[in-house]
Amino acid sequence: MKREERLRTILRELENTGEVRVTDLSRLLQCSEVTIRGDIKRLDEEGRLKRTYGGAIRRSAGISVSFRPGLYYERAAQKRAIAQKAYTYIEDRDTIMLGDSTTCLYLAECIQKGPEKQVSVITNSLCAAAMLVSCDHVTLFVLGGKVFSESPNMLDGITAAQVRRYHVNKAFIGINGINLKVGLTAAGAPQLEVKREMLACADRTFVLADSSKFGSKDLFMVCSVDEIYSIITDNEIEESYVKEAEKMNVRVVIA
User: Fold this and answer.
1) Greater confidence, 87 or 54?
2) 122-155 pLDDT per residue, tens
3) Contact 58, 75 (CB under 8 A)
4) What is the 3-state secondary structure (H, E, C) of 22-84?
5) Are 195 and 218 in contact (CB under 8 A)?
6) More confident position, 252 or 102
7) Quick one: pLDDT at residue 74?
8) What is the pLDDT of residue 63?
């Protein structure tokens, strides 16, 4: 079994039982206890569980499998690096629109752990809101609307209308795909309208997108690339995309 499959299984077992043991997982996944300990260590470092003696339990805060049942973050290391880079662009007293992507959730974690920066955050992500609600250095505003339980985020016309009430210094949003010749793309509703409004309300928009998002062939366009301030991606981006972006004067920052 590949490591990514093992990690998904560990998180699923943890969600079902609240606690997992190395010995049990070793039998279930038919691999050594050393391998399982390595997997648990990685998940603990990514904030998705809490390692204990002989196993692991759910985390009560942070990026938590108990708060988002069954969710598994693909390319977690790359997304965490992107979020950490994005955090360097946040300044003390900034007002921030924070999108609902998993990379934005990692950025929320950075904000949570950075009390040196007093910020105001507006978000449509229930997970990000739960993470930031108890932070003394964060003034939090949560957008309303229909909750999409798999996320869970607010992503409907009500949400988009509420975004229009705000003006922020910076917006940080995720995206389904990037086609440099076409723009930022999405597979369809309901994210389109909310993302467009988030772009419109910010002085500067940062798109947080791991390298797998480049070359998208999604049907719907969110906006053209000249409408954003910067794309922050990981160091696995193909050189051809970097060169194409340079020719188009598109700012790409590599984490």
Assistant:
1) 87
2) 999 998 998 899 899 999 999 998 887 556 888 8
3) no
4) HHHHHHHHCCCHHHHHHHHHHHHHCCCCEEECCEEECCCCCCCCCCCCCCCCCCHHHHHHHHH
5) no
6) 252
7) 67
8) 42
Between vectors from CA 39 to CA 34 and to CA 40, what angle results, nearest 5°? Answer: 95
Q: Are 202 and 237 in contact (CB under 8 A)?
A: no
pLDDT for 87 = 98
Q: Is the dihedral of CA 231, 235, 236, 239 positive or negative?
A: positive
Question: What's the per-residue H, E or C state across 70-112?
Answer: CCCCCCHHHHHHHHHHHHCCCCCCCEEEECCCHHHHHHHHHHH
Rounded Cα distance between 226 and 222, Å, is: 12
What is the bridge-based pairing of β-strands 95-98 and 168-174? Answer: parallel
Q: What is the CA radius of gyration of the chain?
A: 19
CB atoms within 10 A of CB 102: 24
How many residues can be counted in the chain? 255
Reading the block at residue 63, the tokens are 């990026």
